[in-house]
Design brief:
By secondary structure, this protein is of the alpha/beta class. The chain contains 13 helices and twelve strands. Strands 1-2-3-4-5-6-7-8-9-10-12-11 form a twelve-stranded mixed β-sheet. Helix 7 links the parallel strand 3 and strand 4. It comes from Adineta steineri. This is F-box domain-containing protein.
């Protein structure tokens, strides 16, 4: 009885996720009105399947696979989809886990998180993971990353891909393989500290199914502009650390982003004029806009924003602007007073887009002008 209770407590306490769903389920189990349910093993198979959906495959394997025949049959013969995370497992233990649980039931794996370089080679047959929906690749060398991307093009359910790129060797090839994934909807690409997005030519015949793109790392505005030409179905875009080469012109092309409704961009050395050209090509359907800027004081000219929004963002509902002013002590105070007062005009009041300026006399001598009510 004590062994069963410890297994029950461990299983329930370790299964709490961020949204509290398992916590709610735990309360349901412990307060059930069914008098026949006294211990965890009395729970029906249907409810157990719901519980197992909140656990990583290794937790299920380690805690229940060899517990008794009932649990083993439930885990091997049911339609339960499995989530696999390869982190924090030693190589010998993972080899056993892979042999006895992953490989025999690969057709039931729904989510796969590969982050252990020592085990990545075991997934060369990933094209056989027919139920795979979510794939996360971390710390993966280019040769393995390309091989995996090449073999997942045949997967019928893959909708989410998260990758970390740690070298520049074959970025273009990696992007082209991503664009060819037929059912992909969500894609997140992150880079090592000193890397950035590679330049692609503007697309002429490639059309990706991606609807939500997140880029964590450095990229030039022109590189992002060309990248978006491959994504005609994109409606959510989030990018950190966008730079711009001064006097570099964004190449015009016939395709306009007609589905993009959510944008979150962190701009570093991007002139307002360059950003304006980018907006003209991609923001005509945007409803939510989150912009972080610095350096170029033109971003603090309210009339520039008014014209840009009226002409090229007619459906905008949420406008969240944060501009960091470097070395603000070098500027006369009356400059900021005039600029900030312009954001109190009728245009901004009607939309209830309000702003605040917060001076900071700390180490970096910077001030921040930001939205306090970005909703219409």
């Amino acid at each position: 009885m004590n062994k069963k209770k410890r297994q029950q407590d461990t299983m329930l306490n370790n299964g709490v996720d961020d949204d509290g769903k398992v916590k709610k389920l735990r309360g349901t189990l412990l307060t059930t009105n069914n008098p026949d349910i006294r211990i965890f093993e009395d729970i029906s198979n249907e409810l157990l399947k719901e519980v197992f959906e909140y656990f990583d495959g290794y937790e299920i394997y380690y805690s229940f696979f060899n517990l008794n025949k009932r649990f083993q049959n439930l885990l091997t013969s049911s339609t339960l989809l499995i989530k696999i995370h390869t982190s924090f497992i030693s190589k010998p233990i993972f080899q056993k886990y892979y042999t006895h649980f992953i490989e025999p039931y690969k057709h039931r794996i729904k989510s796969l998180h590969l982050s252990n370089p020592c085990t990545i080679h075991l997934f060369s047959n990933i094209s056989q993971y027919s139920q795979l929906e979510n794939l996360l690749l971390e710390n993966t060398e280019s040769q393995y990353l390309e091989n995996i991307l090449l073999h997942i093009t045949s997967l019928p359910n893959l909708s989410s891909l998260v990758i970390h790129i740690n070298d520049n060797s074959n970025q273009i090839q990696i992007y082209n393989q991503i664009f060819l994934l037929p059912t992909l909807k969500y894609c997140k690409i992150s880079f090592d500290k000193n890397m950035q997005l590679k330049q692609l030519p503007i697309s002429t015949n490639i059309s990706s199914s991606i609807e939500h793109l997140v880029i964590i790392g450095k990229c030039y505005l022109t590189e992002l502009h060309n990248f978006l030409s491959y994504l005609p179905h994109l409606y959510r875009l989030s990018v950190k650390y966008i730079n711009a080469v001064y006097n570099q012109i964004i190449e015009n092309y016939s395709f306009i982003s007609n589905k993009l409704t959510f944008v979150s961009l962190k701009l570093d050395t991007v002139k307002f004029a360059n950003f304006e050209e980018f907006v003209k090509n991609h923001f005509n359907q945007v409803k939510q806009c989150y912009i972080s800027t610095t350096r170029d004081m033109t971003y603090l000219e309210a009339n520039k924003w008014e014209q840009l929004i009226i002409l090229y963002m007619p459906y905008l509902q949420i406008f969240n602007l944060q501009h960091t002013i470097k070395n603000f002590c070098d500027y006369p105070e009356d400059i900021f007073e005039t600029l900030f007062n312009d954001f109190n005009s009728q245009f901004w009041q009607e939309r209830q887009w309000l702003f605040r300026y917060e001076p900071n006399s700390g180490e970096y001598q910077q001030g921040i002008f930001h939205s306090i009510q970005p909703y219409r």
